Amino acid sequence: MNFARIVLLVVGAGLAPFFGTAFGAEWGGTHSFSGLPVDLLEVVVTPHQYSDEFEYSRKPDPELGALVRLVMAHRDPKGAPVPLSLRFNGKKPSELIAAKEWQWHETPENLGTPEQPYTLAPGQLAVFTFNAGKTAWGVGKSFTLSVSDAEGAAPEEVTIPLRVSSPRIRSVVCLASDASSLQPDQLLVHVSNSGDAPLKIAAVRAYPTMRLSEPVEGTLTPFTPDGMVPPGDRSGMFAKTGPLPLRHGLVETVFESADGTIVSRWAALRFKADRFDIGSGWLEIPALEGKVPILQETYLKTLTRMHVNLTHVQEYPGYTDDDGPDGLYTRHPLRLMAGFGDIEKYNSDRWVARIHGVDILGEPQMGLTPMESYETLKRYDPARYPTTVTLSDEKDWRYFAGLSDFPHFDSYRVSAPAMDAWHKYAQWDKKIMWGAPLEGIGTMTRSLRELSEPLPVALWSQNAHEGWQGQFSRKRRSPTPDEVLLQAYEGLANGVIGL
To answer: What is the third-level CATH fold of 168-270?
Structure first.
């Protein structure tokens, strides 16, 4: 496998400053721009990857870029707002998109307009992101960041190497201690230490307001009594925070070395109560004799007995609106997945409790660019519920990394359409057209999970079906129970939190 490893490289405040114009030492350091009250606190480098386990009719593009996040802060809580402008190797982000060096970005250029530039408020934290598809922007390379106040002042420049470091945050799961609560009140954080010395987990802080002066300090319960992360190992902690608002924010994990050196690692995410949902598909589509499954109580009871709690429906008369004391929805509530475009309506507690996530893009790899996908999802920033993106082609989903709050992938390995070339696998005594190695689901899960760290991921896992004909030459058109089960197990064993 040629998986590149993902690292969140975060530069902690109060550490050694930059040396010359190069970005940090291994432990890192902040960079304070002298002409502006702005600090660069963090560089998050997520290397692109794709697996060499899959066979394709068209070879994957060998260029490996990176998803890069810059965490910046207005360091003067009593100062004036800063209308911020960033350039990268002397170019605007839109120029890098047009040149196909970048896939998508969220920077001051598209967060503001020429008439109303993006403004960094006093004491505010901000995360600026770009996803670059070319090796020139990959690990081992560097770029020049130019920062100015968008009003014509001479820019200040700093050279930023694109590299990975240790320790790092591997995942953050937001939990609600009360299953009926909409808001998470504790964080489950997994970390790793690939260095050669132990580190102590010193603190976890949440920043739901994105203001430096308003951290929410977590009460820690480390996985180990001493809170240590041994060299070359992993660990983590629970952090009780109290109820967190349903919005985008940052999580800071603070580590301490034996000599007292302090370093922070940060993660950008949407605070939400993460739950494991098991889906049932589009239940509003009429089945035999014109019956609509979502209106059949016997069917809904069967789903409940199978622990299925999710359907791909937004609203359906006679079900979602039948929520009185003895209503059909009250008796058999399913979580919902759809567009939910009326954000003012669906931001109510009544609806947020029902929503698994936004599915507005379909499968964007089938016709949307990453930048078009970003522009569609951006409007959901004020929502109190998460966005999802469903990816289907492992060799290219690096280009869509970082777009959504809850990434999903969709891949079936038996008697179904697929992105890879099943006839090219050599595991069997003959070539087959109707199936592929089931362990590919595990490989895809690891790939998406690592591209998406620290966010949770989910799998659209194959279930019983019929009707896909054409190229599939096996007499049985539906996967066997074991084939269904093993694909789900591959996802579960590799870390999905939804099927």
So the answer is: Immunoglobulin-like (2.60.40)
Overall pTM surpassing 0.70 (yes/no): yes
Distance CA 251, CA 218 (A): 10
Signed CA dihedral, 250, 12, 39, 147: sign only:
negative
- Report H helices in 26-129: 93-98, 108-111
pLDDT digits (tens, 9 = 90+) for 427-470: 999 899 899 999 999 999 999 999 999 999 999 999 887 666 55
What CATH number matches the domain at 31-161, 3.40.50, 1.10.3470, 2.60.40, 2.30.30? Answer: 2.60.40
Report whether 129 contacts 43 (CB < 8 A): no
For residue 70, what are its two tokens? 């810059």
Order of strands, edge to edge, in the sheet holding 335-338? 310-311, 335-338, 355-358
Start-end of CATH 2.60.40 domains in the chain? 31-161, 168-270
pLDDT in tens, 45-89: 999 999 999 999 999 999 999 999 999 999 999 999 999 999 999
| 38 φ/ψ sector (left φ>0, alpha ψ -120 to 50, else beta) | beta
Stretch (H or E) spanning 172: strand 168-175
Helix (H) or strand (E) holding 104: strand 102-106
DSSP state for residue 61 in the 8-state scheme: P
Domain 288-493 sits in CATH 3.30.70? no
